[in-house]
Amino acid sequence: MAKYIGYKKPRNTKRTLLRLISYMGRHKFSMFVVGILVIVSSLASVFGTYMLKPIINNYIIPKDIPGLVKALVFMGVMYAVGATATLGYNRLMVKTSQKIVKEIRKDLFNHTQTLPLAYFDAHTHGELMSHFTNDVDTIAEALNNSFASLISCSLTFVGTVVMMIVLSPILTLITFAMLVEMLLVVKTIG
Question: Which residue has the higher pLDDT, 190 or 155?
């Protein structure tokens, strides 16, 4: 009977990531479109938030109702474009990741067919099935969520910091100083 050895990290993490990227590289056009849609979504979110200052200063304070309506419609269009881009990249990423997972499963099955019988004697059925189901499903989940989220969160963070600096550099410095102080307090207490 084979002995269960538990979870193992890849022997060569860099090589494993490069292999995963090579699977993603087979779908360059889809990944490119996902990247563009993520950028559009992030920019629409940041720009929609930036629109609050001009709307308040130029339309609400002077009580320019027709201008306010136009600005709010424009802001709504920006958020609608962002939401549509988010829907588009999520759907496209799900389809692309399912194609990638299909290719991984096919390659894994083909590789399994070439293994010697001694391999099957040394590994449990559950361990083999785990590679085919759980491990590949984990890759699918990572592709669905992590790739687009990493780009989106990075762009949103950078865009937000830029907008903070544009709107009020002094308030931005105060915010970052308070953030550093808060982290030091949490580190000391923790």
Answer: 155
